[in-house]
Amino acid sequence: MKSTIASLSAMEILDSRGNPTVRVFCGLDGGVRVSASVPSGASTGENEAVELRDGDEQRYGGKGVLRAVRNVNERIAPQLVGLDPSRQRLIDRLMIELDGTPNKSELGANAILGVSMAVARAGAEVAGLPLFAYLGGPGGARLPVPMMNILNGGKHADNSLDFQEFMVMPLGAPSFAEALRYGAETFHALKGILKKKNYATAVGDEGGFAPNLGSDEGACELIVEAITAAGYEPGREVALALDPAATSFYEEGLYHLAKSGQGRKTSEEMTKLYSSWIDRYPIVSIEDGLAEDDWDGFRGHTAALGGKIQIVGDDVYVTNTKFIQRGVREETTNAVLIKLNQIGTVTEAIEAVDLCHRAGWGYVISHRSAETEDAFMADFAVAMGGGQIKSGSACRSERTAKYNRLLEIEAELGRAAVFESPLR
């Protein structure tokens, strides 16, 4: 007999920045009880689903989420109690209709997503399957290559780097476990190099180091040095990936590289800058190299660089099929970043992945800069089978929770596990 949802409730918890977020509990009539916690972003696209905050300056500086909690307890729960948790698409659609806005601003994407994730977990429990197998079916066996953030800048760190994330991708590893080792060893080699050069080794929001370097290009040079110091061949075994998060330094049609003192640049000049870096460093992926509103610039950017590397759109798409469809038509990028909380339901995130599949595009399952210990996205990454994940650095438990869950999944799959980079 199928179980039904007997209870849904939410509470306010803290994320990795010490700000409130939502945790949702889903109880079934058979006694199953699961939970899910919602992440939060700092570098956000203007078209993202709305993260509902209280605005009460007397609590958490206005960042409380008690309104979202009440919306789960008082408005969403009465509509979903009694439903079969395996009806994920129906449940997500009911919440979207109940909200009634194009960006989930009435109930809050944080409220809706918490319920959506918890219901998915409950459905997996009823089916007697691990979450990755429940969401991915028989094909859910591909472990992702980590895009490991080891140097932070931009909005993720108070330092001299304009670009937000400098990452390593262990493309040449034979398994996820070995890829994680390659990345962690490179991370520790970088720490040793920074200490030797008298740079700070404090870490930013996603666990990467946040030194005051002379330039963004200097970050690439240090990472290549660290890859070599760790005993790996740059480009063949461990490559570089960048997320400049260019929207954060885009003003009046120009890119202001103020933190690093590189002045103002046009879209074309930014693309030329990236092209020169690709020639010098083993860069295989650039995410948000231009701003979310710079659609014309992105077309030229992808035309110039897309034949060499992966061009990922994040803020420009915000995991929304409407914007991804435009991107496919206009050849804006050749890959998409998938963030569950940008769109607000598991169903819509899966629809965004399906659209990437149909377009022949790559996609990367991503965390947010403010995370929780919830490892839902690790299972989701395996279920979606795209072969790429962004989960931050090799430190901070809210980041390593995802990596450790992927180690468990690989061990559980055993010989059925697949690990291969889509960028080789």
Task: Present the secondary structure layout.
Layout: E1 5-14, E2 20-28, E3 33-37, H1 66-80, H2 88-99, H3 109-127, H4 131-136, E4 142-143, E5 145-152, E6 165-169, H5 176-196, H6 216-229, E7 239-243, E8 250-251, E9 254-257, E10 263-265, H7 267-280, E11 283-287, H8 295-305, E12 310-313, H9 321-330, E13 335-338, H10 340-343, H11 346-359, E14 362-366, H12 376-384, E15 388-390, H13 397-413, E16 418-419
Helix pairs in contact: 1-2, 1-3, 2-3, 5-6, 7-8, 9-11, 12-13
Put the structure in a nutshell.
With 424 residues, this protein is an alpha/beta fold. It is built from 13 helices and 16 strands.
Structural commentary:
This protein has 424 residues and is of the alpha/beta class. It contains 13 helices and 16 strands. The strands form four sheets. The protein has an eight-stranded mixed barrel, surrounded by four helices. Strand 14, helix 12 and strand 15 form a beta-alpha-beta unit. Helix 1 packs across helix 2. The radius of gyration is 21 Å and the shape is globular. The model has no long low-confidence stretch (mean pLDDT 95).
What labels describe this entry?
424 residues; 13 helices; alpha/beta
Q: In angstroms, what is the radius of gyration?
A: 21 Å
Taking the alpha carbons of the first and last residues, their distance comes to: 47 Å
Structural class: alpha/beta
Could you list the spans in which at least 5 consecutive residues all have pLDDT below 50? none
Number of strands: 16
Overall geometry comes to: globular
Oligomer: single chain
Question: What order do the strands of the largest sheet run in, or round the barrel if closed?
Answer: 5-6-7-11-12-13-14-15
Biggest sheet character? 8 strands, mixed, barrel
Total DSSP helices = 13
Determine the mean pLDDT: 95
How big a fraction of the residues is strand? Answer: 15-25%
Helix content: 25-40%
Helix-strand sequence: EEEHHHHEEEHHEEEEHEHEHEHHEHEHE
